[in-house]
């Protein structure tokens, strides 16, 4: 079995560890910067240290990781830092998800149980397609985005970098949502949204411009 370590010891780590183990990985430890977590276990895996041990892990030969942090901006910042250190990232694809053969899934991305990725869609690196979410044909989900549980993207939808699609949201065909935006839970998106906005509702309307 291939060995990997996880960054982050919160709730998303539980889901990530379960998927990694179900996919044949041995999760050898967790790195988390919360000092109160040191020595504790998450899903049976021990927190072995803070990010200060990353170089030591790399020198020991442990060069593959998975970042189990739900916040898109934080996850991407950590990924960029670790890439510069030489780490590579595994994909966590649940064996009970459905991923069409023509779908591209980027490194470090997670596809949870019950998720469906249909033909010719492209999932960037460090993306989360969470439990029961669906991504129909010819969609583009850029790096660092999060499609929350039970959300549905129709065909040819574009989701920008680090954008969060809240739980239970539906996005109709052909919609473009810019980077660093947030769509609130339960929304129905029927018009395209620009970058750096918060929108929600049925239909979704912009309620805030994000800095």
TrEMBL record:
Gene responsible for this protein: perB
Span of domain PglD N-terminal: 4-82
Catalytic machinery residues: 137
Protein name from the UniProt record: Hexapeptide transferase
GO molecular function: transferase activity
Annotated residues for binding of acetyl-CoA: 146, 167
Claim: Translocase is one of the keywords in the record: no
Site feature: Increases basicity of active site His: 138
PROSITE patterns: HEXAPEP_TRANSFERASES
NCBIfam families documented for this protein: NeuD_NnaD (TIGR03570)
Pfam families xrefs: Hexapep_2, PglD_N
Keywords annotated in UniProt: Repeat, Transferase
CDD domains: LbH_AT_putative
Organism listed in the record: Collibacillus ludicampi
Residues reported to bind substrate: 70
């Amino acid at each position: 079995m291939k060995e990997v370590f996880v960054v982050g010891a919160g709730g998303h780590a539980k889901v990530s560890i379960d998927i990694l183990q179900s996919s044949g990985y041995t999760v050898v430890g967790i790195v988390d910067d919360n000092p109160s977590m040191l020595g504790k276990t998450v899903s049976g895996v021990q927190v072995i240290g803070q990010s200060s041990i990353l170089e030591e892990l790399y020198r020991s030969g442990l060069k593959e990781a998975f970042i189990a942090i739900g916040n898109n901006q934080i996850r991407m910042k950590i990924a960029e830092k670790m890439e510069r250190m030489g780490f590579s990232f595994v994909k966590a694809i649940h064996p009970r998800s459905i991923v069409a053969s023509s779908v591209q899934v980027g490194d470090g991305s997670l596809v949870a149980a019950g998720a469906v990725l249909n033909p010719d869609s492209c999932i960037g690196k460090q993306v989360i397609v969470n439990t029961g979410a669906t991504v129909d044909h010819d969609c583009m989900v850029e790096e660092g985005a999060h499609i929350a549980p039970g959300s549905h993207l129709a065909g040819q939808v574009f989701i920008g970098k680090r954008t969060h699609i809240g739980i239970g949201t539906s996005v109709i065909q052909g919609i473009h949502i810019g980077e660093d935006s947030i769509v609130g839970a339960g929304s129905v998106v029927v018009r395209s949204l620009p970058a750096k906005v918060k929108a929600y509702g049925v239909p979704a309307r912009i309620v805030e411009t994000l800095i």
